[in-house]
Write a structure and sequence with these properties.
Layout lengths: L6 E5 L2 E6 L7 E5 L5 H11 L5 E6 L3 H4 L19 H18 L8 E6 L1 H9 L8 E5 L8 H7 L8 E7 L13 H14 L3 E7 L7 H14 L1
Length: 228
């Protein structure tokens, strides 16, 4: 966990910063919002996370590649979400992951998919689409997303998923926006739902709004799933 300098990979229109453990270790995939990968890596070290490799994917089309189906703008001035998660997941599994694995010193022990905000939604959605990831971190995930709870209850999550971590800021549901207001209820529901499916699951409520300490919150989730 002491290596600071990332290996830079450019592939498929994405820039990937890969922080490598020196030996075989779990691989975490994280989709960055605004280039915060190094800060996340440093926060993980400060928290004493078990050894792992971190692949930070930059250049994501947030409202397309992280969203499962189209929705209109959720507020005045916002852009709509176009629902390109399935197409991007294909790129991740077929193009990006092989390049990341090739750059590691040894095959990963297992793979974790972690994300914040819409990438936290994508992480949970992906658990229904592939057996690649055995552990999921959804930190302040956009689990308010319309019809997502219905999707979860009508579909089967991958049997490969064994551990899931959910967190949220305690002020995130304090909004007049009818799209965003259900986020805490939805997140709590999902944590309980997966726990009842015999998936090792936890939910943590943090202080602050959606934008407070995103890397610290994500690092806490990574530490928890890596310790299980």
């Amino acid at each position: 966990m002491k290596e600071e300098k990332a290996v830079k990979l450019c592939y498929g229109g994405k820039t990937i910063h890969l922080y490598r453990a020196p030996q075989a270790a779990p691989l975490v995939i994280y989709h960055a919002v605004m280039g915060e990968g190094k800060k996340l890596w440093q926060d993980c070290q400060k928290l004493g996370c078990p050894a792992f490799s971190l692949a930070v994917v930059n250049g994501v089309d947030w409202n397309d590649e992280m969203t499962p189906w189209p929705i209109p703008p959720i507020a005045k001035g916002d852009t709509p979400c176009s629902g390109g998660a399935d197409a991007y997941l294909d790129q991740l599994l077929i193009e990006l992951l092989p390049e990341i694995r090739e750059a590691l010193p040894a095959p990963p022990e297992y793979c974790v998919l972690s994300g914040y905000s819409l990438a936290g939604l994508f992480a949970v959605y992906t658990a229904y689409k592939t057996d690649c990831f055995s552990r999921i971190v959804s930190a302040s995930g956009s689990l308010w997303y319309p019809d997502f709870l219905s999707y979860v209850q009508q579909n089967q999550i991958s049997e490969a998923v064994k551990v899931m971590y959910f967190s949220l800021g305690d002020k995130e549901s304090h909004t007049k926006n009818p799209y965003l207001a259900p986020v805490e209820d939805n997140t709590r529901f999902l944590a309980q739902y997966y726990s009842e499916k015999n998936i090792q699951t936890t939910f943590r409520l943090n202080q602050g709004n959606h934008y407070h300490n995103s890397t610290g919150r994500t690092a806490a989730g990574l530490r928890w799933v890596l310790q299980q």
